[in-house]
Design goal:
The structure is a single chain. This protein is of the alpha/beta class. It has two domains: 4-81, Chemotaxis Receptor Methyltransferase Cher, domain 1 (Orthogonal Bundle); 92-164 and 195-282, Rossmann fold, CATH 3.40.50. The protein contains ten helices and ten strands. It has helices at residues 15-29, 38-51, 57-66, 70-81, 92-109, 126-138, 155-163, 176-182, 195-198, 234-247; strands at 115-120, 146-152, 165-166, 183-187, 190-193, 201-205, 220-225, 248-256, 269-273, 278-282. A seven-stranded mixed sheet has the order 6-2-1-7-8-10-9. Strands 3-5-4 form a three-stranded antiparallel sheet. Helix 1 (15-29) packs parallel to helix 3 (57-66) and helix 2 packs across helix 4 (70-81). Bound molecules: S-adenosylmethionine (SAM). S-adenosylmethionine binds at residues 29-31, 82-86, 90, 121-123, 127, 152-154, 157, 207-209, 226-228, 231, 257. The site of S-adenosylmethionine has 25 residues, from loops.
Length: 285
């Protein structure tokens, strides 16, 4: 085990081994770790190698590549290498655009029947619950009109999402009135989302790089994938966008994070101006 007090730390992995870990992690999850991330990734791998009784990096690599039980270890590894930062009403301008421009348009388009939304990379649930709250706030959509699927590769954050219990940091962008209206303080500093909101969201584990799972999903009117592809390289972004294109209905909406764009990734989505914001729409059939 490396000790931070022992002076400058030697890399845990030589260049070849580091590259092998990066390629494998990229192939399995789309996450891209370059040379600048070596220290970060080594510390995360080290925590998993110690949890397994101090196995060597080479043995650990073979384990997550070939072992019949590797699925469980991938589950653990993913919980330590993903970035899960999120909070309620993040990027509010875009969410208001969803509430005021997109939802009413889709509602009419669907013949006032049902709108399906996917929050892909939902982390601990603040994004899909915000979506459900925004729809409820309008008072326009009857029970069951909005189906929200929320998925993430990280089972630890999904467990938190399903529990629906949050601390102050999740409320950094909202006021007390919002919190009081949609949450109940269950114990000091811990707030539970209202059951009427919780039941609108269907959470499940889903790796965007598991092609076999896409067939299990229905077609969507809107896909939110915000602050997720920022961690992918170009090849991974292209792959995910192909899948999103397949899973979106004609003229369906794709909402990315504000620092994310499809420039040089694909031209199968068109950037359009809505009154509230700029959003992508699926082009073609
Ligand atoms: C920074 S969070 C974004 C959460 C939320 N969308 C938001 O904008 O607040 C990124 C999430 O993407 C998830 N993620 C990363 N790679 C993924 C993959 N291959 N499949 C599914 N989810 C993934 C991470 O586990 C993490 O929870």
């Amino acid at each position: 085990m490396l000790n931070p007090n022992d002076g400058p730390q030697m890399p845990l992995l030589d260049d070849d081994l580091y590259r092998r870990f990066c390629v494998l992690i990229h192939d399995e999850t789309g996450l891209s770790f370059g040379p600048g991330s070596q220290f970060f990734l080594e510390r995360r791998l080290e925590s998993r190698m110690s949890a397994l009784g101090g196995v060597s990096p080479r043995d650990y690599l073979n384990y997550i590549r070939y072992d019949p039980d590797r699925t469980q270890e991938w589950d653990h590894l993913v919980t330590v290498i993903t970035t899960n930062e999120t909070y309620f009403m993040r990027e509010i301008k875009q969410l208001r655009c969803f509430q005021n421009d997109i939802l009413p348009a889709l509602w009419e388009r669907s013949g006032r029947s049902r709108i399906r939304v996917w929050s892909a990379g939902c982390s601990s649930g603040e994004e899909p619950y915000s979506i459900a709250i925004l729809a409820k706030e309008t008072g326009r959509y009857p029970e069951g009109a909005l189906e929200i699927y929320a998925t993430d590769i990280n089972s630890r954050v999904l467990a938190k999402a399903k529990a629906g219990l949050y601390t102050e940091s999740s409320f950094r962008a909202v006021d007390e009135a919002f919190k009081a209206r949609w949450f109940t303080e269950e114990e000091p500093g811990r707030f539970r989302v209202a059951p009427s909101i919780q039941k609108c969201v269907n959470f499940s584990r889903f790796n965007l790089f598991d092609p076999g799972r896409y067939g299990l999903l229905p077609a969507f009117d809107v896909i939110f994938c915000r602050n997720v592809i920022i961690y992918f390289d170009m090849e991974a972004k292209v792959k995910v966008m192909e899948r999103f294109h397949e899973k979106l209905k004609a003229q369906g909406y794709l909402l990315l994070g504000h620092s994310e764009s499809l420039i040089s990734v694909t031209d199968t989505f068109k950037l359009i101006h809505l009154p509230g914001d700029l959003v992508y729409v699926k082009e073609g059939p």
